[in-house]
Amino acid sequence: LSPEQQQPTMAVSLSSSSTITPITLQPKLKPIHAIGTVNFGYSINSHGISLRRSAVVVSAITGASGTETADLLETVKVSDLRGNEIPISDLWKDRKAVVAFARHFGCVLCRKRAAYLAEKKDVMDASGVTLVLIGPGSIDQAKTFVEQTKFEGEVYADPNHASYEALKFASGVSVTFTPKAAMKIIESYMEGYRQDWKLSFMKDTVERGGWQQGGILVAGPGKDNISYIRKDKEAGDDPPVEEILKACCA
């Protein structure tokens, strides 16, 4: 938000003899679906009435927010590597799952995300939690990703980007090319990860410009039981793995 959007002001006309004692009203925090809470503060003084808003982003969602997120995904389907369409909620209907949403199957940062989650797969397995990765792209792209990365979790393709749109994941040039993302790409290359440029420039990716961001979700058992969701604010915005393990395996 711009400064003007963050602090909209409604002027109050006063006569020269008018006085207003400054007061501050602080309503309770209001839950915002899939984001967290937003604290609205109102102040009235001799200069007028101003509205201040500061967003506090939290990772875990519970209760109604989880149900609302499940409702958004109700009609979404993804494809397994054999080409079978599956309602996305079936991935956690009868089990608990950590579901990682990749930017696209060729992305170097997504390959690093897959690896750092796979490093904790033994912990997830011990807790009866399934590791899943979903990517926006074709089934062939998903197969290539598995062949190249040897990812041991389950992989699904979302050719229509339906899950990304339903979850309203961030997308755009401004959240893809950032200083932090650039540093993380350099770090990833130094650690041995590589971008697959052929996958990156395939039609399924290029049509979206490669600007799609992802996130991580913990859900199940039960299709409405979504206990954690974190949406990437920019490319490479990985949460600490300890936070994910706390959500899925504590």
TrEMBL record:
InterPro entries: PXL2A/B/C, Thioredoxin-like_sf. This is Thioredoxin-like protein AAED1, chloroplastic. Transmembrane segments: none annotated. It comes from the Eukaryota. It comes from Brassica napus (Rape). It holds the Pfam family AhpC-TSA_2. SUPFAM superfamilies: Thioredoxin-like.
